[in-house]
Design brief:
The protein contains 60 helices and twelve strands. Helices cover 61% and strands 3% of the residues. By secondary structure, the protein is mainly α. Belongs to the MYBBP1A family. GO terms for molecular function: E-box binding; RNA binding; transcription corepressor activity.
Amino acid sequence: MGSRELAEPLSPGEATQSGARPADRHGLLKHSREFLDFFWDIAKPEQETRLAATEKLLEYLRGRPKGSEMKYALKRLITGLGVARETARPCYSLALAQLLQSFEDLPLCSILQQIQEKYDLCEVKKTMLRPALFANLFGVLALFQSGRLVKDREALMKSVKLLQALAQYQNHLQEQPGKALLDVLSEVSVATLQEILPEVLKADLNAILSSPEQLELFLLAQQKVPSKLKKLVGSVNLFSDENVPRLVNVLKMAAASVKKDRKLPAIALDLLRLALKEDKFPRFWKEVVEQGLLKMQFWPASYLCFRLLGAALPLLTKEQLQLVLRGDVIRHYGEHVCTAKLPKQFKFAPEMENYVGTFLEGCQDDPERQLAVLVAFSSVTNQGLPVAPTFWRVVRFLSPPALRGYVAWLQDMFLQPDLDSLVDFSTNNQKKAQDASLYVPERAVFRLRKWIIFRLVSIVDSLHLEMEEALTAQVARFCLFHAFFVTKKPTSQIPETKQPFSFPLESQAREAASSAFFSLLQTLSTQLKQATDQTRGGQPWTYHLVQFADLLLNHSHNVTTVTPFSAQQRQAWDRMLQTLKELEAHSSEARAAAFQHLLLLVGIHHLKACWLLWDPDHPCQALPLLSVKAGVGYPQEPPWVEVLVEILLALLAQPSHLMRQVARSVFGHICSQLTPRALQLILDVLNPETSEDEDHVVVTDDSDERRLKGAEDKSEDGEDNRSSESEEESEGEESEEEERDGDVDQGFREQLMTVLQAGKALGGEDSEDEEELGDEAMMALDQSLASLFAEQKLRVQARRDEKNKLQKEKALRRDFQIRVLDLVEVLVTKQPENALVLELLEPLLSIIRRSLRSSSSKQEQDFLHKTARIFTHHLCRARRYCHDLGERAEALHAQVERLVQQAGRQPDSATALYHFNASLYLLRVLKGSTAEGCVRETREKQKAGTDPSPGPTLSLLKGGQAASCLDLNLVTRVYSSALSSFLTKRNSPLTVPMFLSLFSRHPVLCKRLLPVLVQHVTGPVRPRHQACLLLQKALSLREVRSCFEDPEWKQLMGQVLAKVTENLRVLGEAQTKAEHQQALSSLELLNALFRTCKQEKLTLDLTVLLGVLQGQQQSLQQGAHSTGSSRLHDLYWQAMKTLGVQRPKLEKKGAKEVPSATQSPISKKRKKKGFLPETKKRKKRKSEDGTLAEDGTPAATGGSQPPSMGRKKRNRTKAKVPAQANGTPATKSPAPGTPTLSPSTAAKSPKLQKKSQKPSQVNGAPRPPVEPAGQKQPQKALPEKGVVGKSPVSAPARRKARLSLVSRSPSLLQSGAKKKKTLRFTISSPKK
């Protein structure tokens, strides 16, 4: 009612008569435009945009609560409820709800009535039925979401009736009206629900159990108004034998309804709560869930069971959890986890993980329930292997008592596996296999133990900082003991010996335990600093593990190692422990701590590979002595870091993955103490020039690998295997080459001729007839030939073996270099600010350069890829870099110059890119370094006057914040030379992206290099193209623009514009492909200049440019049909459009002259068969008289009209008629003095031609027809400054111009050709 009484908006006439000023009218229009935009934004898909638009609309309406805007807003929002876009309907519904919530004076009944009148279901058309249904539904939802519906009884009753009516249209709305009704009734008061309940709930139990909505409404009434429900329906037992099948069907329908939503239906959880309330949970779970839903073999029903299981965890007691977690539901869940492996299959495991994590997080005060749930999920196994992942993030929610209990359960199951307590299953494929070996207990025990040991390690890995120290030590001791030791006799001093095995621990399980232990050791050793504060006595975890291993070795009567120690091995172990004791006195020093860490790791790895400490050739044999000397600090010994690096290199020479882990871990702790000499030891190994002749590093060959095979870890690097495979593949080819070489061996040929000649001499004559030789001579000759070929075969085999040996040594050396790259990666990753990192650039570049030339084998490819990855990602792209150069600035400047010169001399762009990126990295280091030594050195040079140049310019950051060590004069000269070489050299390895990267990272250098580019814009053809392309990209960089002041930027734009204008004087005269490319690049640069000037609103003199473009139009038109001219014409007219000249209509390809009035087209044209008679043909819609049409085109007379043809033929004929310009026939050429703009005849498709046929307009007005040649047209004076943009032309004028058939020459060109007055255009963006 109140909304209907709102005033109508005044018309403009009424507003004027009532005293409203014209300014108010413009203000209302402005507000109306803003007001209408709110409704467009409300329907947008972005949530932030919708919410902002709704808030602005409410704020706008709060200022005009009684105005006409409110009525329009309601009308517009109600209309939006039934729009065709389904995504927009909820947006308008939410906006309407907020509007009704903000303005409570708006009656809900009136709004509901407007919705029903707008979308009357009785009168709506069939095609509009679906939008009308959704409009009514979203309208009721808007009323409900406003929060006022439950307070307005009349509107509530009407809404309930409307929802009941909508529930009949299930094909369109499905169960949405029922859900909406349930949501509404759940918010009403008890008295209101008692009144409404008889109207919405049927008294028949069969009807209640027929749909999820009715059953959910029944449960709602039972919860809120049980007495009223009992009077209406009577006493009902939902879990009776008769009702259980109905409940199953209802839950199946509910599961199907949420199939796409993937959520738990509310009716299922309500039934669960009702069963718990009535103490009928076992019956509900067994008969309804397991025997009902789960037996249907319907995946939505199975997912409902899984979700019900997860949602029920917080509601159940410990006894009920045991019932649920050992039943068919969790077994079926395990089968789903095992079978859902394909990428497109739905996986429920993440959802179940969320359920379990929520439960564990919510019951921190009940560790027994936590432990029960986690043990139950860990007991779901597939032939012994638990389906839960070894790394399960839910363990972080366990309370300390529950965590201790879970670890104890895992250890007990490892020692004495109880297979009967597991919920085990087999998949259908496993059942079909019928393999008896899959069902033996030993296999299940092995799979379970392997999973348990990795689960223990993952717990420590994820919680080692939060876990108790005793628990971490317990897990570490457990893994160490069962990986390397065997109990002979239990003892109270070693608790691990009191735990017997119910199943013997097989060797495969020990290998898995060993692998898991070293993974745990890696976790504990990498956390050295944190672990030092946590372990007893301030010692690292590795120290306690070594002490525990020594305790086990000392109790030889109770415990023995899996591989017994020999006397030499035990002596090496004792010597290592003695060295540790000597180093403990200097444990506070970094060098002693480093050697101690190395000794501990090597000692623990000694349990895995017993040969490490007793092999006389192994570098670890001298490790204790070197550790003591370096740790104590003997003056005659080399620095301890160098000693340690040599030891690490010796360890890496062994093909052991364990030693590789040790080397990485130790080097990560000492890389901060690295010296130049120690780094040089690493680089000497990687240097391709010197590493080939190295003799001080012995690389283990295949015989050593066979000796290590029994003790080597199975997780050894795959690079050795790949290299051996590539060697085996190449053996066949090499053997064939050797055989061919043996065949053509000159010495063997001479020996063969000698033997043959000697055999003939035995016959007594020099004749060549073999028949003259006797039997003895033949036998002697055969023996000689046999011995000769046997010797040759031995020589070939010896050469082949030697070559194979050399190749194998080369492969081992290359594999050693790949492992040494680990140290380089650790250094650049952990110490990117170390100045020694700068020494890695050229050695890594040397490796890349050499590998790119000879990277044929797979091993060489791996070496190259790893080096390139370290160089590119970890070094050049590192966020941190060296800031303290000291006295290295001058050397780095020379290195930059050297790198840039090397980049220009590379054979290909790939290699040049690495050198160029290295120079950019050094530029960043020089620019970011504020070393005082650099400044002091510069000042000393300036005072001494030794520097002939004006002096290194210390570049200042913008604003003068801090000085850097970058010598701008030097690097400008270096990169200027490189840029000139790139522009002039024909096959330069440098590329445009390289210089663009330089410009974007160092815009100050770009500012100094731009004059070089501008200079080459008018140079030869190739430099001109490259310079235009690079200049176009550089001028669009924001970093470059920030380095210029406004006057400098304007001056630069003018210079570039002058150069481009000079290039365009030869536009259209291209004869070669390069010249054509140069013209394209010039026009692209010109358009880029226009865009830049338009964005910044620069004022430039464009008179000369306009004249040049006009003068080259004729040459462009002559080459219109050449290859690639379409792009050239598009760029040309894009530039002309910016200057205010629109592109004229294009002539159709193959246009012909219009036949004259005296000639009949029928006489010239042969009459085709199949044409309609003249009486059946359509007549043309042109006037019969000879008057001019509206656009100045003379109409054809009736006698000269050709006979009518079909529509397609008539359209084709129209297309062949040439466009007439200046009001004269197309057959006449314009006078030479008239500066006309001829239409372009570039070959285009008909669609493009139709799009390009737009009339040219100047300053927003259509051009009048031009007088014939010889008569001067009076010209209007153009303003000196004009805004070039979109012309404010009215719609009728634009339509009239589009309907014109005459192509007129722009008046701007005429005035520009006649007048000598300077034209200046301000290129700016049009105002919105």
